[in-house]
């Protein structure tokens, strides 16, 4: 009996050591990936700017001297450079979630939401959307990242709308306790095109898209950034949906963060 207990204890110790090693390797790999994404995208900015600058100069000074095919090639080059710029900016945003994050501070989410709706005012008017909102709480968070996550989720609700149906976007909030910790759960609900539930994990992966590039604008990084922001705050971001029945994105985050992570002078 005693030998069995010793053997079981030794097996647990070895398993724990292996898990620690694997966890450390994973953390190192993630840091290296983020560093690579930042450096690669940052270093690509300058040559891309030169392509765009010389392309614009060529178009303004030599466009009339080009035949129709040459003008078409030039226009395609400038459009491709523009898409690359958007992709690089999104890749930088993804890496900056952790590399250039600000300390947590008390943030009024209702004020953040008001700012987001102000930024999206033209798109809301153009689509004829109705937006219904709850009063949101004050939480310990990175204000800029809260703006990112709300703007992305509401922007997606306006983008992936059903043809012939005005978007209805609801932002709902409720308080709950998770393992003794006060949390806020924010639901962003829309009546858009939705998607099959089996694709839920895929939409949060970087560069993953459910629709062709020509159908909807975007790089496929936005939701990956949102989930990374949620995880950085000790929370989560999940989605529920059915085709042609809209989608619900649920962002859960603690109300209070560890005191060492909070800047009250922010």
UniProtKB/TrEMBL annotation:
Aminoacyl-tRNA synthetase as a keyword? no
A Pfam entry, by short name: HATPase_c
Q: What is its EC class?
A: transferase
Give the UniProt keywords, A-Z: Kinase, Phosphoprotein, Transferase, Two-component regulatory system
Per its record, the protein catalyses:
ATP + protein L-histidine = ADP + protein N-phospho-L-histidine
Any idea which GO molecular function terms this record carries? phosphorelay sensor kinase activity
According to its UniProt record, the EC number is 2.7.13.3
Q: Which InterPro entries match?
A: HATPase_C_sf (IPR036890), HATPase_dom (IPR003594), His_kinase_dom (IPR005467), HisK_dim/P_dom (IPR003661), HisK_dim/P_sf (IPR036097), Sensor_kinase/Photoreceptor (IPR052162), Sig_transdc_His_kin-like_C (IPR004358)
Q: Does the keyword Acyltransferase apply?
A: no
Segments passing through the bilayer: none
Record-annotated Histidine kinase domain positions: 39-257
Name the UniProt record assigns to this protein: histidine kinase
| Highest classification ranks of the organism | Bacteria, Bacillati, Cyanobacteriota, Cyanophyceae, Pseudanabaenales
């Amino acid at each position: 009996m005693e030998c069995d207990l010793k053997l079981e204890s030794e097996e647990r110790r070895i398993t724990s050591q292996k898990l620690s090693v694997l966890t450390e390797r994973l953390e190192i790999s993630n840091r290296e990936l983020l560093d690579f994404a930042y450096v690669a995208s940052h270093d690509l900015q300058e040559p891309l700017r030169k392509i765009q600058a010389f392309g614009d100069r060529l178009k303004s000074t030599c466009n009339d001297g080009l035949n129709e095919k040459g003008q078409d090639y030039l226009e395609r080059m400038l459009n491709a450079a523009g898409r690359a710029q958007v992709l690089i900016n999104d890749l930088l945003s993804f890496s900056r979630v952790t590399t250039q994050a600000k300390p947590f501070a008390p943030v009024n989410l209702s004020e953040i939401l008001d700012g987001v709706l102000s930024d999206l005012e033209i798109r809301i008017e153009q689509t004829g959307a109705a937006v219904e909102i709850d009063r949101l709480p004050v939480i310990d968070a990175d204000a800029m990242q809260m703006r990112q996550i709300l703007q992305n989720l509401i922007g997606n609700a306006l983008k992936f709308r059903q043809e012939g149906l005005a978007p209805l976007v609801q932002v709902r909030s409720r308080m709950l306790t998770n393992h003794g910790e006060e949390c806020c759960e924010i639901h962003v609900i829309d009546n858009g095109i939705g998607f099959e539930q089996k694709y839920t994990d895929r939409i949060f992966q970087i560069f993953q898209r459910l629709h062709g590039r020509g159908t909807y604008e975007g790089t496929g990084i936005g939701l990956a950034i949102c989930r990374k922001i949620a995880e950085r705050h000790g929370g989560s971001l999940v989605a529920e949906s059915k085709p042609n029945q809209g989608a619900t994105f649920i962002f859960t985050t603690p109300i209070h963060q560890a005191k060492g992570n909070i800047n009250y002078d922010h």
